[in-house]
Amino acid sequence: MNQTAPKLLLYISGDRMFGVSLERVDEVLPAFEMTGVPGLQRGVVGLVSLRGDILPVIRVDASATDNTVSLKAQDRFIVVRSSDRTFVLLAEQVCEIIDGDGDAEARPGYLAVNQSSIERVIMHEETMVFVLDTDRLIDDASYRSESVSTSVTEVREVHPNAVASPY
After folding, report:
1. Contact 139, 84 (CB under 8 A)
2. Please, are residues 100 and 124 in contact by the beta-carbon 8 Å criterion?
3. Structure confidence at residue 66 as a pLDDT band (50, 70, 90)
4. pLDDT mean over 102-127
5. Which of 23, 61, 72, 99 is least enclosed, having the fewest CB within 10 Å?
6. pLDDT at residue 137, rounded to an integer
7. Backbone angles phi, psi at 153, to 5 degrees
8. Could you tell me the CA-to-CA distances from 129 to 47, 81, 98, 107, 156 in Å, in that order?
9. For residues 43 and 97, what is the distance between their CA atoms, to the nearest angstrom?
């Protein structure tokens, strides 16, 4: 176990619990209107304009079979920074902040998850938590910015004053 692991923000998406390093979280907001854009890669469920930046909204839940999302009142946007980009994670529920070492730890190699974006798996109060690697998540081929950047023009048609983020 890593005794110096950073604190994690735990959240639920689909039927799984995920953790993201609190050091990478800028803010948590109630979910608001996002723009669905045809042709986005699996997992990217839309784009939002936040303080003049257009950011991709990512739903990590592996059971998501398409990019269609109906937001609910309890949904939250977790604004996250990777080493060089900012993006939004869609959460059905934000749970708590915990020490990042968990009760037990395993590498995700033997689990049926997108291994490239999962840094490790920990147990917290008898619940498996998939800890996200934010750099790999946004760089993963499923979330490459080419699909988003070609769609920024379509977003500007809806939001003409929006400014693209360099995510």
Report:
1. no
2. no
3. low
4. 70
5. 72
6. 81
7. -60, -40
8. 26, 20, 11, 12, 37
9. 24
Query: What's the token pair of residue 151?
Result: 């769609």
For residue 134, count other CB atoms closer than 10 A to its CB.
Answer: 21
* Residue that the structure tokens 């983020």 belong to: 165
Beta-carbon contacts of residue 14 (< 8 Å; ≥ 6 apart): 61, 62, 63, 64, 92
Residue linked to tokens 């490239």: 116
Question: Tokens 């997992």 — which residue?
Answer: 43
* Residue written as token pair 């639920």: 12
Q: Quick one: pLDDT band at residue 44, thresholds 50, 70, 90?
A: confident
CA 73 vs. chain centroid, Å, equals 18
pLDDT digits (tens, 9 = 90+) for 92-111: 999 999 988 766 666 555 55
Mean per-residue pLDDT, 6-27: 94
Q: Give the integer Cα–Cα distance in Å for 92 and 15.
A: 10
CA distance 63 to 52: 31
* Count of CA atoms in the C-beta half-sphere (13 A) of 10: 19
29 secondary structure, DSSP code: E
Please list, in sequence order, all residues whose beta carbon lies within 8 angstroms of the beta carbon of residue 21, skipping any fewer than 6 positions away: 6, 7, 8, 9, 100, 131, 134
The amino acid occupying position 77 is F
- Average pLDDT on 158-164 reads 44
